[in-house]
Amino acid sequence: MQDELRRQTVLVVDDTETNISIILDALNDEYEVSVALDGMTALQNCEHTPPDIILLDIMMPEMDGYEVCRRLKADPRTRDIPVIFITAMADTQDEVVGFSLGAVDYITKPISIPVVQARTRTHLALRSARLALENQNAILEQKVRQRTAELQQSRLATITCLGRAAEYRDPETGSHIQRMAHYSHALAVAHGLNHEEAELILNAAPMHDIGKVGVPDLILLKPAGLTPAEREVMKSHVVIGGEILGNQPAKLLQAACQIALTHHEKWDGSGYPQGLSGENIPLYGRIVAVSDVFDALVSERPYKPAWDFPRAAAELKAMSGTHFQPVLVEHFLAILPQIEQIYDRYKETIEHTPCHDRC
Length: 359
Ligand SMILES: [Fe+2]
Ligand SMILES: [Fe+2]
Fold this sequence. Notes:
Blueprint: H1 2-5, E1 9-13, H2 17-27, E2 32-36, H3 39-48, E3 53-57, H4 65-74, E4 83-87, H5 92-100, E5 105-108, H6 113-169, H7 174-190, H8 195-204, H9 217-220, H10 228-235, H11 237-245, H12 251-262, H13 283-298, H14 309-318, H15 326-334, H16 336-347
Parallel strand pairs: 1-2, 1-3, 3-4, 4-5
Helix pairs in contact: 2-6, 3-4, 7-8, 7-13, 7-15, 7-16, 8-12, 11-12, 12-13, 13-14
Bound molecules: fe (ii) ion (2 copies).
């Protein structure tokens, strides 16, 4: 707003006093006019306080107007200032040179006051319109960025809540969810997936066991081993998860659905629910399977104590080619120090939950 209220500024560059005084007469009432008597001074003035427009004489000693214009257009700070040439040379060839250097217009000598006023007004109006448009675009871009960030945030918040809802019924801990999601992200990066896909896995992996909300408590929370029939019911969590997350257009939910459905498939085809093998198992499912099992190994469970890292790593290696894709095990073991850092970072997360511990 302040910018709109201030008087626009014009720099006149001319070595002839008569021309200067005519131009001052023409423009002084409406604009803030400053004068430079030679090219070098004009360039210095523009560097300090760039004017809104420049009226530039071509024929000047030492540095002519063309050279001044060339230098103005080469400098990003002054490139966008409109330049109108003032010339006595009503030669079309000179005009061509001037336009090719980036001038917006010509005023020919002898200088006519109405012409100076009209051309200056027109080009200042054009400049103002261009700046307003650029400003408007910047505001719109900023708004779009802000709106996108808000949407992304609320999407992730919804998903976090969904994951939390699942955790409430899952005897596995909230910190397991965090750790396995971050292991999966690190493994995705180590395996060469791009940033976007790795983030997708990070955000989708927490929902891998969401289907457990559909498994009866008697089975889900049973401290002792499961009967074969109960194990079958337990296995249904992958299909239930797929049904909860399925048929959604959002990329994140599609990834989450794929992970929920396939994180118990095994490389050799002995997993469930479909008994897929090798690369028929979607990559996200293969990645999450490694992270999920590894974290179960290094965590305490009702049926086992927590294993140390070397023992868990040896177990992972032993399952390479049967349970897991060998190259993924290789990549996972290569980033083991990073995995340990993640383990430590999320170790202290409050173990949930009010009702799981067989109360
Ligand atoms: Fe699972
Ligand atoms: Fe898990």
